[in-house]
Design a protein that fits this description.
Layout: H1 2-44, H2 53-65, H3 80-107, H4 115-141, H5 165-193, H6 197-228, H7 232-245
Helix pairs in contact: 3-4, 3-5, 4-7, 5-6, 6-7
The structure holds fe (ii) ion (FE2).
């Protein structure tokens, strides 16, 4: 009997405390539902859409629709300074290629007979020509126009009584590679000046790294030629170059 009275008392005491807790949970659930509903409504409202293609593409579509057939359809953000700088670099690469072509022919003469040097300069001629083609592709990709300039004819003879033809030509080649490296850095600066990330990336990825290595290789050749002197030493270096580049003869 006493136990029943205690149980009834506990139940009576518990009820007033449980009812507000249930109401509190119900309020929290309701608030959570309202928050989720507001979030969905915000996500669907026009003000929350950051990219509105139909609206933003309008001016671009206008320029594309009215572009003259003589204009590039692809050109976007290609500054005229970048276009001119790429054309200048094409001329630099072709000029260096032209000089290496003359060196290839010179060292292939019967009275010079250094086929390793001839082959090395032939490879250099092809490499610089390929760089020019890369730049031409870059120009076309960005909607620019390739403008080829006049190439000055290189000297036909690389004889030098003091240094010998191998060292003389190699020092000239090193100078050209160093100059080319400076020109590429200038091209990169033009890209930076106009915030053209694609041009900067192209110069870094396709040209600058390889050019730095070309300068190093040319410098090492000059160092070796200075060490071995003229005569038999040059012959030994030529043998090594022949192993690396072949005999340079055009089949
Ligand atoms: Fe090059």
């Amino acid at each position: 009997m006493v136990a029943q009275q205690v149980s009834s008392w506990l139940t009576a005491q518990a009820l007033p405390r449980t009812a507000p807790a249930v109401r509190c949970q119900a309020r929290e659930r309701s608030a959570a539902i309202q928050r989720r509903t507001r979030a969905k409504q915000h996500a669907l409202s026009p003000a929350s859409v950051h990219f509105q293609p139909a609206k933003e593409v309008g001016p671009v579509l206008e320029s594309v629709a009215h572009a003259d057939s003589s204009d590039s359809f692809a050109r976007v953000g290609w500054h005229v300074d970048c276009e001119a700088a790429v054309n200048e670099q094409i001329n630099v690469e072709l000029t260096v290629s032209y000089v290496y072509l003359a060196m290839y022919s010179f060292f292939h003469r019967d009275n010079i007979a250094l086929p390793g040097f001839s082959a090395m300069f032939k490879a250099g001629h092809e490499e610089e020509r390929d760089h020019a083609l890369l730049l031409m592709d870059q120009q076309s990709k960005r909607g620019g126009r390739v403008q080829l300039h006049t190439l000055l004819p290189p000297q036909p003879d690389y004889s030098n009584s003091e240094k010998g033809e191998a060292l003389y030509a190699s020092e000239l080649a090193l100078s050209l590679e160093k100059l080319n490296f400076q020109k590429l850095r200038h091209l990169h600066e033009v890209g930076e000046r106009h915030n053209d990330a694609q041009l900067c990336d192209f110069v870094e990825r396709e040209l600058l790294e390889e050019q730095a290595q070309a300068v190093k290789d040319a410098a090492e050749l000059v160092a070796r030629l200075r060490r071995v002197g003229r005569g038999l030493g040059v012959y030994e270096v030529d043998l090594e170059l022949r192993e690396r580049y072949g005999d340079g003869v055009q089949n």
